[in-house]
Amino acid sequence: MSAEPSRMRFRTRAVHAGQDPDPGTGDTIPPIHLSTTYTQHGVGRHQGFEYSRTANPTRAALEELIAALEGAERGLAFASGMAATHAVFSLLPAGSHLILSGDVYGGTYRLVTQDMVRRGVAFTLADSSNPEAVGALVSESTRMLFLETPTNPLLKIADIAALKRAVGERVLVVVDNTFATPYFQRPLDLGADIVVHSSTKYLAGHSDVVGGLVATSDDDSYQSLKFIQNAAGAVPSPFDCYLTIRGIKTLALRMEAHEANARVVADFLAAQDCVLAVYHPSHVAGNDAVLVSRQMSGSSGIVSFRIRGGEAAAHAFLENLRLFSLAESLGGVESLACLPAAMTHACFEPELRSRLGITPDLVRLSVGIEDETDLLEDVRQALARAGDGATSL
């Protein structure tokens, strides 16, 4: 590129960072490098690539791209979001202590409770919306704070800058930025040390490729993560990297459409008598609203709500949707709906789910980019068929 990515605005970086025309052919779109091995000019004399588990040109382009979008020095690509998260947790030595945000994706909780504990890592669940309480949990053995903001599925917002101050420089602050994406939130600019993504979601954006990404400017962390990436080998295929790069090109446009539709759906739900509560960053007040406006420039397409009538009403709502698909995952152009207590967060103990507010009547919507009128009509008719209260559309 003729200009440095750091001088480009987000939409330009999303299209161009890591994607120079191919020097050999002039391809405007960099090719998919499928080779697993690379011919060397002599022993130890190569063009930067030896074996595709270690490094691949298509994967390198994706890694440069996520670094540019997150304002990081380096990026790393993994075969899934959980592979990326596992690599980050692998930075923790036996005997260390992890502070884990309580309201996180079920797979993250399962990885900590069933794998990291077995490896000798202790953990404490914390309310990441309370920096002082989180800071009070820090001990000599604490090495990492891992959080989501907004959280999954209750869309709670954590003050990244305040949390970093609370835990101190010695503790790595890792933010799962999957929900917000770097278009709406840049955790490294706010003091985080490492950012993690399930690129399966908004970054790739089309529900057709699984992947994970890490971005950091901390060189020690990067070198350790790069070793883990190569040694464990949980890397994405070149074609998966290509699909993710292609998806990211339209990230800004898609996120604006997701957010606009989600706001309309959230507002509609909040006006219904059969809806007990709506969870969306646009529906917070007071200090939380101030934090949202300071830390985020938008709020993506996730809306959660509680429906009157309990679990039976939630099941009826989900099973009567026509446009929204009843499915796990999120962040694709199509609209999805799920019941977190029985799907994405089923591995949480029932008492913990209840304490966190992940109740059987909680529905999570991933609002897509379809026409808002069609989305509202689908939500309206499903609520009506859930059989508890009339809607006002």
Strands, helices and their partners?
Elements: H1 10-16, H2 57-70, E1 74-78, H3 81-89, E2 97-101, H4 106-116, E3 122-126, H5 131-136, E4 142-148, H6 160-167, E5 172-176, H7 181-184, E6 194-198, E7 212-216, H8 219-232, H9 238-248, H10 251-270, E8 275-279, H11 286-295, E9 302-307, H12 310-320, E10 325-326, E11 336-338, H13 350-356, E12 362-366, H14 372-385
Parallel strand pairs: 2-3, 2-4, 4-5, 5-6, 10-11
Antiparallel strand pairs: 1-7, 6-7, 8-9, 9-12, 11-12
Helix pairs in contact: 2-9, 3-4, 10-14, 12-14
Unreliable stretches covering 5 or more consecutive residues:
389-393
Output the structural class.
alpha/beta
User: CATH superfamily name of the largest domain?
Assistant: Type I PLP-dependent aspartate aminotransferase-like (Major domain)
Total of domains? 2
Identify the strand order in the major beta sheet.
1-7-6-5-4-2-3
CATH class division of the largest domain: Alpha Beta
How many DSSP E strands? 12
Rg (C-alpha, Å) = 21 Å
N-to-C SSE string, H for helix and E for strand: HHEHEHEHEHEHEEHHHEHEHEEHEH
- In CATH terms, what is the fold-level topology of the largest domain? Aspartate Aminotransferase, domain 2
The CATH architecture designation of the largest domain is: 3-Layer(aba) Sandwich
| Mean model confidence by pLDDT | 95
Could you give the distance between the termini?
A: 50 Å
Strand content: 5-15%
Helix amount: 25-40%
Described by strand count, sense and barrel closure, the largest sheet is: 7 strands, mixed
